[in-house]
Specification:
26% strand; 288 residues; 10-stranded antiparallel beta sheet; alpha+beta
């Protein structure tokens, strides 16, 4: 069996086992089989990236920051850079380019919570693009300087774990179709937590459903993006947009001291991702 075939077999086995654990726990609560299977039918593929994962290296936390000479300095620190050629196309449910670098910027600062101003950005650097190393100076960020500086010093390989994702919020499902959603979300939370015991809290998720203790971050990002465009705080495209067009690009759970309760979400319209307009991503930061 080839290396690729072996990997695919292992991936199918791991994700199937995860679904089976979720199914068994749900049935043990006497949730009807038809409702359990309907719930598992909305599963999405995603990639969990972590220094503790045992898959191939597909990116890294932190720098160096390599940008084309004509690209302005980002406003926020670099969280991660992904080598899309190393990230298998079947690892996520997203229409990502087959190669190039995807750069993710954000600031998980507590004072930013609740802001409708985008708290980060994303950038795509096509393969073969001339780039130069960029050094960002955050000395003029005042009281946030220490936080920005700490994020800027992130380092580490990001290794791939094929994963799956199920809804974490009632507002993105049809409650009539999923009458046991609350219990099923609780079951999924238990299964997901078991996986975190292996790779730890510090991780980056690409694709899938967003997680947060409040409303769905992707839906709220779609609403906030439209509102900030109308207010002139974010460039518009003139295209009609709907919340259901939006998907989770990435989600970051940091393990930096003091920021363990933060989570950053990069949301984007599926059409923009397919067209490689990653500068259209909307970044939000929430605190548990």
């Amino acid at each position: 069996m080839s290396g690729r075939a072996t990997t695919v077999h292992r991936v199918i086995q791991e994700t199937t086992e995860k679904l089976n654990r979720c199914r068994e726990k749900a049935l043990a609560r006497d949730i009807p089989t038809v409702d359990v299977e309907r719930w598992l039918g909305v599963v999405r593929r995603c990639a969990t990236l972590s220094p503790q994962a045992n898959g191939p290296v597909v990116g890294r936390l932190g720098g160096p920051l390599m940008l084309p000479p004509d690209v302005p300095d980002p406003e926020y620190p670099l969280i991660a850079s992904l080598d899309l050629a190393a990230l298998p196309q079947d690892a996520t449910d997203l229409p990502l380019p087959p190669d190039g670098q995807l750069l993710l910027f954000a600031c998980p600062e507590a004072s930013a919570w609740g802001s409708e101003i985008p708290l980060g950005s994303a950038a795509y650097v096509p393969v073969g693009t001339t780039v130069e190393e960029r050094w960002l100076d955050f000395s003029d960020t005042g009281e946030e300087f220490a936080s920005y500086q700490e994020v800027s010093e992130l380092q580490g390989e990001l290794r791939l774990r094929y994963d799956i994702s199920l809804p974490d919020h009632d507002d993105i499902i049809d409650k009539a179709e999923h009458p046991h959603a609350a219990e099923l979300r609780e079951v999924w939370g238990q299964v997901r937590g078991e996986g975190l015991k292996v790779i730890g809290w510090d991780r980056l998720q690409i694709g899938g459903y967003a997680t947060d203790c409040g409303m769905d971050p992707v839906t709220s990002s779609a609403v906030s993006a439209a509102r900030t465009e109308r207010a002139g705080l974010r460039p518009g495209t003139g295209e009609a947009t709907h919340p259901e067009d939006w998907v989770l690009l990435a989600e970051w759970h940091p393990s930096l001291p003091g920021w363990e309760d933060a989570v950053a979400h990069w949301s984007i319209r599926r059409q923009d991702a397919a067209a490689r307009r990653f500068n259209r991503a909307y970044v939000s930061v929430f605190w548990f």
